[in-house]
Specification:
single chain; mainly alpha; two-stranded antiparallel sheet; 8 helices; 74% helix; globular
């Protein structure tokens, strides 16, 4: 390991939380893969899994690995890239797979651009909402997209609904909307329950 760390310096910054984040980054490619095959249920499932892992790796980092300051600084930047890729760039690509119209392209650009602004602005010191979120978190945006994709895959509406919804979601990411923050275990359980219910409702096999 010391020899490997000399060649690849990031290795010494890897711990359980950061390894989970890197795995989460890999999930983005799974989402695109399934979307290209028009297997949107699986694409939505991967996004939901990524959203839950995003809360889980943060929980592990804060609760068990907070003393590792270098790893936490590295993990903070890594997590921002993972959020941008999983919950903004990947949904934007899926939107363009569904619909290549000008409106879909604008919605995709809005989603990515506002996510970049959000992650840059609200990552600055002094921009905390005091125990909550200011604006819609990118992870929540990704989860909303996953639920919407489930409905589309069942034929309940067309791509135009998702295009409009994600344009709105993109705008909400950079507003001053106050959203309560709950603990990671509660949020993960809520995401799992909601996605499970949506699966039962949209695909009662």
């Amino acid at each position: 390991m010391p020899t490997l760390a000399r060649v690849f310096p990031f290795v010494r910054l890897l711990d359980l939380a950061n390894i989970l984040t890197m795995f989460n980054i890999g999930l983005a490619f799974g989402t695109v893969y399934f979307a290209l095959q028009r297997r949107f249920v699986l694409a939505a499932t991967v996004i939901c899994l990524a959203a839950m892992l995003d809360f889980l790796d943060g929980h592990i980092a804060r609760r068990y690995l907070a003393a590792n300051s270098a790893q936490r600084a590295f993990g903070k930047h890594l997590d921002s890239f993972a959020d941008l890729l999983n919950f903004s760039i990947t949904p934007a690509l899926v939107i363009l797979i569904l619909d290549q119209s000008l409106s879909a392209t604008l919605a995709a650009v809005t989603l990515v651009f506002t996510a970049i602004l959000r992650l840059s602005l609200f990552g600055m010191p002094g921009t905390s909402a005091g125990g909550g979120y200011r604006g819609l978190p990118t992870t929540y945006s990704g989860f909303v997209f996953a639920l919407a994709l489930m409905g589309l895959s069942a034929g309940h509406y067309g791509a135009g609904v998702i295009v409009g919804l994600m344009a709105l979601v993109g705008i909400l990411q950079v507003t001053s909307l106050r959203i309560p923050k709950y603990g990671a275990p509660s949020t993960v359980a809520c995401f799992a329950m909601l996605f499970g219910l949506s699966t039962i409702y949209f695909h009662p096999w």
